[in-house]
Write a structure and sequence with these properties.
By secondary structure, this protein is of the alpha+beta class. It folds into 4 domains: 5-97, Uridine Diphospho-n-acetylenolpyruvylglucosamine Reductase, domain 2, CATH 3.30.43.10; 100-229, 2-Layer Sandwich (Uridine Diphospho-n-acetylenolpyruvylglucosamine Reductase, domain 3), CATH 3.30.465; 233-453, Vanillyl-alcohol Oxidase, Chain A, domain 3; 458-487, no CATH class. Helix content is 34%, strand content 20%. The strands form 5 sheets. Strands 15-12-14-13-18-19-17-21 form an 8-stranded antiparallel beta sheet, with helices on both faces. A hairpin with a 5-residue loop joins strand 8 and strand 9. Helix 14 packs antiparallel against helix 15. The protein is globular and about 70 Å long. The relative contact order is 0.11. Bound molecules: flavin-adenine dinucleotide (FAD). Flavin-adenine dinucleotide binds next to strand 3, helix 5 and strand 10. The site of flavin-adenine dinucleotide has 34 residues, from strand 3, helix 5 and strand 10.
Length: 495
């Protein structure tokens, strides 16, 4: 029987209580706001907030079973978002932020169990109390949540050595559309004397099914993550620069540094990132070589001076053999804890938009930003950089006002997690048209070469990235039909 919206609302109120259900148009608009700005405007019919108590009890399974029975689309909403939790087909928007508990930290076996709506930031905070950390620190501050970061392919500083956030996941608890709760990996061992300890369980691994799935296969209610021992003072910051014509040397340095397993993180940026900070005097222009175009912000992880001396020596040898020049000004003013000590004069990496975040000075001069997010092998960096520069020039975006910078992660898979930025005026149709044209070009030259997008969806990237995977995509669609026969979970994203 088709339910009316009133019927749906009253049933949801019965499940979660009247305070946690809303059809208010202002609420809908607020929830629709994301970093993708006006790009995805779909609104839900109703918003439901799911809360857990301190023992981790919640009504997620009941909500899902209800939605499934009546074939109501349901989309989980995490934090600020980039637009992929936009409810394309209407229905229920499930606010996960009430499921925000960090349930346990196991300091001996070095893992943490948190609810799907816990902010990544709060997980870091809990681990810190035990001298632990996640070796993957993003720039998002407190604005994103762990369940979403797993399904969306979250990444951060540390990925050069440790990989994606999804690589740190050793267990998941997932709720399927019918309301069935499934524990995977380490969490399948919960309730035994040993408890959770490793990802591998004596059955085929299904954890991967729920990573990069855009919330289309199940709702993640709990995540178990591997942590490492870590202290902020064990991380050491350096920056080496290269000229515009030395991109081959940049590639070679990266390959050697990743293969040698010396570095904790390398971050690849170009001079555009420093244009406005230099103009504003946030960093001292006279301390930056005039011909420096590429900047490799590099972090070493060392528990003591001996380990540091060894790693530093090997890192310096590789950079110097490739013709890199060290610039201490960037390490001091733009990286990690020391940058924060500079107060108003520093602009640390780790906070994009907050006070003195690295984007702030650019946003003051340029406007809102758009960013592409994709992966390709390090050996193609030169070709891809040249293609992007040509596309930006052709679209009239290669100027300080559009700050067309690169801000990319080097991964342990010998790949680049490339972020091409363009800053634009979101209220100027002409500027938006330039941006769209450039995005189309990037999509075309990237797709042609076999790029891997971070969390593509049919609505953000079109069908090509999926269809090029031919029978694998067919297989995933079959699984989706099996798990979610009524296609209620984030319909229109994967299928
Ligand atoms: C200031 C800023 C800086 C950023 N920097 C980085 C960065 O350094 N590294 C990085 O990787 N990203 C970064 N991002 C992007 C970030 O990854 C996205 O915002 C992303 O979508 C994170 O999820 P969210 O919590 O905002 O949730 P949403 O965008 O609402 O959700 C993302 C997807 O996950 C699904 N989902 C949400 N919760 C669940 C759940 N419990 N179970 C199943 N599916 C679920 C949603 O339906 C959606 O498909 C940044 C974002 C901001 C705002």
């Amino acid at each position: 029987m088709m339910l009316t919206l009133d019927n749906i609302v009253s049933k949801l109120k019965e499940i979660v209580g009247p305070r946690f259900v809303s059809t208010n148009p202002i609420d809908k608009i607020n929830y629709q706001h994301s970093l993708a700005y006006g790009a995805y405007k779909a609104l839900p019919d109703v918003i439901v907030r799911v809360e857990s108590d301190e023992n981790g009890n919640h009504s997620l399974a009941e909500i899902l079973a209800f939605a499934n029975e009546h074939k109501i689309p349901i989309v989980a909403k995490g934090g600020v978002g980039m637009g992929i939790s936009s409810p394309l087909k209407g229905g229920i928007l499930l606010d996960m932020l009430g499921m925000d508990k960090v349930l346990t930290v196991n300091p001996k076996l070095q893992h943490v169990i948190a609810e799907g709506g816990a902010s990544v930031y709060s997980i870091h905070h809990a681990l810190r109390q035990h001298g632990l950390m996640l070796p993957n620190y993003g720039t998002y501050g407190p604005s994103v949540v762990i369940g979403a970061m797993v399904t969306k392919g979250g990444i951060g500083y540390g990925m050069t050595r440790y990989g994606w956030i999804a690589d740190l996941v050793i267990g998941l608890e997932v709720i399927l559309p019918g309301g069935t709760v499934v524990r995977l990996g380490a969490l399948a061992n919960q309730g035994t004397d040993f408890g959770p300890f490793q990802k591998w369980i004596h059955l085929p691994d299904l954890l991967g099914l729920f990573t990069l799935s855009a919330g289309a296969l199940g709702i993640i209610s709990r995540v178990c993550l591997r942590a490492i021992e870590g202290k902020r003072e064990w991380l050491h910051d350096y920056c080496y620069t290269f000229r515009r014509n030395q991109l081959e040397n940049v590639q070679e340095s990266m390959l050697q540094l990743v293969k040698g397993e010396i570095v904790y993180d390398i971050h690849f940026t170009d001079r555009w990132q420093y244009y406005w900070p230099m103009a504003e005097g946030l960093c001292d222009k006279t301390k930056m070589p005039e011909d420096a175009w590429f900047f490799l912000k590099t972090m070493l992880f060392a528990r003591d001076s001996e380990e540091l001396a060894y790693k530093e020596k090997r890192m310096r040898k590789i950079y110097e053999e490739q013709g890199g020049v060290e610039v201490q000004e960037i390490a001091a003013k733009a990286m990690g804890a020391r940058a924060q000590e500079h107060g108003l004069h520093g602009w640390p990496d780790f906070h994009i938009m907050g006070p003195d975040g690295w984007c702030s000075s650019i946003v003051r001069h340029a406007g809102m930003f758009a960013v592409t997010s994709k992966m390709y092998p390090i050996t193609f960096l030169r070709e891809m950089y040249d293609l992007d520069e040509a596309a930006k020039r052709e679209c009239g975006l290669w100027d300080p006002e559009h700050s067309p910078q690169h801000d990319s992660y080097v991964t342990r898979d010998l790949a680049i997690k490339e972020e091409y930025f363009v800053f634009y005026n979101p209220y100027d149709e002409e500027d938006i048209a330039k941006l769209r044209r450039w995005m189309g070009k990037v999509q075309e030259f990237s797709n042609k070469r076999g790029v891997v997008w971070t969390a593509p969806t049919l609505s953000t990237k079109g069908p090509y990235p999926y269809e090029r995977l031919t029978n694998l995509y067919d297989f995933v669609k079959e699984i989706k039909r099996l798990v979610d026969p009524n296609n209620i979970l984030n319909p229109g994203t994967l299928y």
